[in-house]
Design brief:
Length: 329
């Protein structure tokens, strides 16, 4: 940022957010110490998550800490915008982790309000708006430059095939994690199913609701997490924050499946584009929303196999072409 005052203001704002999170954690810890039963009822017994994340956010204001952090994350230690992004994601992660540790899953399983299509779109749209604002559309970049910064590119045909094949693979993996959770942690798995049924039941009962869910979540979440944040905060941290915002899974094997999905989407973004990760995300949500069973599950497996074979054939042809081109004439 060229203006010195803007740089200082951004750092002060970042420090204020981190400090507020840290103080909130201390206040919750004090309440938990003085009134343990009241703290449990109020859901304030998870204060360490706030204290740790707030403390890390405050540490990020220190220049030497940012230099050390730049060895782990692809941030520019001199950029106050990168500091702000890091502090905001730490704050979001801390608050979400506190909710998960405060047994919010049980609350959502018993009393969560069902979402309709308008609720869903209004809930996802802020992700897209934050992504657009974060890359400086109009302020620092024109629409074409902003789209390039977010990683949107016209995909090659095999990018689309790879994204669809990956979606099928991730869906199979999610089923495996869900089955594992039902065997090892049946009570938590039941709460996850109850929470998702209460929240998304009205949407998944209607095909247009499933499509709305898939497109809104895929487009808006990919724009922010893979498009805007990942190039600055790295795949691992971005994936952790992405998994944390899916509070309907709590601390469960399903949440672990979301984290693995985020890692896969991050790799698609890194080696292909945000366009590819968005296609994969939308396709995955469509599979999860409609569900596959019986003959449809068999057909899905066959299609997954065909897509994989098509990719292998394309790879072999590509390698053969490169070998022929490199051979002496």
């Amino acid at each position: 940022m060229r203006e010195h005052w803007a740089r200082i203001a951004t750092l002060v704002f970042s420090g204020g957010i981190a400090g507020a999170l840290f103080l909130l954690g201390l206040a919750d810890a004090a309440i938990a110490t003085l009134d343990p039963h009241g703290a449990a009822a109020a859901g304030t017994q998870a204060s360490p998550a706030l204290i740790v994340c707030g403390g890390l956010g405050l540490a990020a204001i220190w220049p030497q800490a940012r230099v050390a952090l730049a060895r782990l994350l692809p941030i520019d230690p001199e950029s106050p915008v990168h500091v702000l992004a890091l502090v905001l994601t730490l704050t979001l992660f801390g608050l979400q982790l506190q909710s998960a540790l405060s047994n919010v899953l049980s609350q959502e399983a018993g009393s969560a309000q069902p979402l309709n299509r308008l609720d869903l779109v209004l809930g996802e749209l802020p992700f897209l708006l934050i992504a657009i604002a974060g890359v400086g559309l109009v302020v620092r970049r024109n629409p074409s430059a902003a789209a390039d910064r977010l990683g949107y590119r016209r995909p090659a045909w095999w990018h689309v095939v790879l994204a669809l094949a990956a979606a099928g693979g991730f869906f199979a993996l999610a089923i495996g994690f869900d089955q594992l959770g039902q065997v090892l942690t049946p009570h938590i798995a039941q709460e996850v199913n109850s929470a998702n049924t209460r929240i998304f039941g009205d949407l998944t009962a209607d095909p247009t609701g499933v499509v709305t869910l898939a497109v809104a979540a895929g487009v808006c979440e990919e724009a922010l997490f893979r498009g805007a944040l990942q190039p600055r905060l790295g795949i691992l941290w971005t994936s952790l924050v992405f998994a944390s915002v899916h509070t309907q899974y709590g601390l469960s094997f399903d949440a672990l499946a979301v984290f693995v999905l985020a890692l896969g989407l991050g790799l698609l973004r890194r080696f292909l584009s945000t366009t590819a990760s968005t296609i994969c995300h939308v396709a995955y949500d469509l599979l999860a929303g409609f569900g596959l069973s019986g003959i449809f599950l068999t057909l899905g497996g066959v299609l997954e196999g065909l897509l994989t074979l098509l990719l292998l054939a394309a790879l072999l042809l590509h390698l053969r072409g490169r070998t022929a081109a490199a051979a002496p004439s």
